[in-house]
Amino acid sequence: MSVKKNSRILAAEKERLQTNNDIKLKKELGLLDGVAIIVGIIIGAGIFVSPKGVLKSSGSVGLGLIVWILSGLLSMIGALCYAELGTMIPKSGGDYAYISEAFGPLPAFLYLWVALLVLVPTGNAITALTFAQYILQPAWPTCEPPYEAVRLLAAVITCLLTVINCYNVKWATRVQDIFTGTKILALLIIVFAGMWVLASGKTENFQNPMSNTNPEPGFIALAFYSGLFSYSGWNYLNFVTEELKEPYKNLPRAIWISMPLVTIIYVLTNIAYFVVLTRDELLASNAVAVTFGDKLLGVMSWIMPFFVACSTFGALNGAIFASSRLFFVGARQGHLPRAIALINIDRFTPVPSLVFLCFITLVLLIIKDVYVLINYLSFVEALFTTLSVAGLLWLRYKRPDAERPIKVNIIFPIIFFIICLFLVTLPFYVSPWEVGIGLVLIVSGVPVYLIFIYWKNKPFWLIRTSDAFNQVCAKMFLCVLEDGKRD
C-alpha cells in the first residue's frame, strides 16, 4: 500500500515538475539593472581590501598600474566575446550553456561541478564573511571580532538576501541598484581625496615607478590573477540572459557602459592609494581602503569600513541573484536534481535554486579555513573562461552561418584566448600545489558524471536511490513554493 502511495506522490510531483517547466522566468531586467549587476558584482571587497596582491607580484608601482589597466582591457575584451556568445546562445547559465553548446555535456557538467563545490558558494561565503567582519569591527576596535559572531552575521545576511531574491526580482534589482551607487560613491571619495593630495604636490611615491619590478613571467601571471580577481563578475549578466529585456541590445550596451566605468574608477583608485600610501605601507595592509582612511580622513575614517560593508552587501546580492540561475539551468538540463529547476509560479523566481545555493554557502561558512579555497578559485575560473572562449572560436568554425546578432572581430577572441592560455599555464611553475588541487577538483566530477548522468542502464537500487533523493528535494521545495503561494 505504501509503495503505491509513494508512486502516486512521485507521479504527482513529476507532473508538478513538468507543469513548472512550462513556466519561464520573466524578462524584468532593463539596461540600468544590467549595468548595476555587472558593476555591483565586479566592485566587491577586492578593490577595497586587496590591491596589494597586484603590487606584491608585480613588485613595482608602475607595473602594478599597468596590470590594473591591462586587466580592465582584458576583461572588456572577454565581456565582448561573451556578448557574442550570449546573443548567439540566448540561454541563462553563462559559461555552462556555452561550453555545453560547443563541447558537449561532460565539460559543461565539470564546470557546473566545480562551480557548485568551489567557485560560487566559496565566493559568496567569503563576501559574506568580509561584510560581517567590517560591520562588526567598530564594536571591537582593538581586536578581531569573535569568530562565532562573524560567522553568525554572515549566515544571517546570506539568508536575508536569499529571501529577498526568492520573494521578488524587482526587490533584488532595487537592492542592487542602491548598493551599486553606494560603492561607486565610496570609490569616488577615495579618488577625490587622493587627487587632492596629488594636486598639493605629494608625488614622491611616483619618483621611480618601475623600481623593484619583478620581470618573472610566472609572477606577472600571478599579478594579473590578482587584478582579474578584482574585475571578476564581468560575465555574470550572461547568467541571466533569459530575464534581460531586449538582450541583443541591452547585453552589449551594459558591457560598453560598465567595463570602461569600472576600469577608469579602479585605475584612479589605485593611483589615489599610491599617492597617500608608500609601497611598504600598502604591502603591510590587510585592508588598503581602511588604512587609506585612517591616514587621510581623520575623524571620518569610520566611513571606509562602512563603505566596504555596503560594497560586499551589494556584491553578495548580485552574486546570489546571478549564480542561482546557473544551478537552475543545470537542473533543467538534468545535471542536478530536477526539483532545483522549479520556478515559483506566483513570483517567477527560481526558489529551489536560491535555497540550494544558500544551503551550500551556509555549509562553507562552518568551515574554519574557507579562505584557503580562494587560492584555487583564480586558476579554475581562468581555465573554464579559456574553454568558453575556445568554444566561441570552435563555433565560428563549426557553425559559420549561425545567427550572431553581435559578432566581434575575430582578433578579439584570439587575443583573449592566448592571454587566458598564458594565465592558465604559467602558474604551473609558480604555484603547482594550488594548480594541482584545482585540477583534482575538476577531475573528481568525472566519475559523478559517468555514474549519475552518462550511465543509462543503472541498477534498480541506484535508480531508486536517485528517485528518492529527487523526491525529498521536490517535497521540500514544493513546500517552499506552497508557502510562497499562501503569502
Topology record:
Layout: H1 2-21, H2 31-42, H3 46-49, H4 52-58, H5 61-88, H6 95-103, H7 105-136, H8 147-167, H9 169-199, H10 217-231, H11 247-276, H12 279-284, H13 288-296, H14 303-332, H15 351-366, H16 374-398, H17 411-425, H18 427-430, H19 432-443, H20 445-454, H21 460-486
Helix pairs in contact: 2-9, 2-11, 2-14, 4-5, 4-10, 5-10, 5-11, 5-17, 6-7, 6-16, 7-8, 7-14, 7-15, 7-16, 8-14, 8-15, 9-11, 9-14, 14-15, 16-17, 16-19
Can you describe this structure?
Helices cover 75% and strands 0% of the residues. The chain has 487 residues and is mainly alpha-helical. Helix 7 (105-136) crosses helix 15 (351-366). The two termini are 35 Å apart.
Query: In which range does the helix fraction lie?
Result: over 70%
Main β-sheet description: none
- Helix segment tally: 21
Query: What is the overall pLDDT average?
Result: 81
Strand content: under 5%
> How large is the radius of gyration?
23 Å
Order of SSEs, N→C? HHHHHHHHHHHHHHHHHHHHH
Q: Shape from CA axes?
A: globular
- Report the strand count: 0
Task: State the end-to-end distance.
Answer: 35 Å
Provide the low-confidence segments as ranges. 1-10, 479-487
What structural class do helix, strand and pairing data support?
Answer: mainly alpha
Could you name the key traits of this structure?
487 residues; mainly alpha; disordered C terminus
Question: How would you briefly describe this protein structure?
Answer:
The protein is an all-alpha fold. The chain contains 21 helices and no strands.
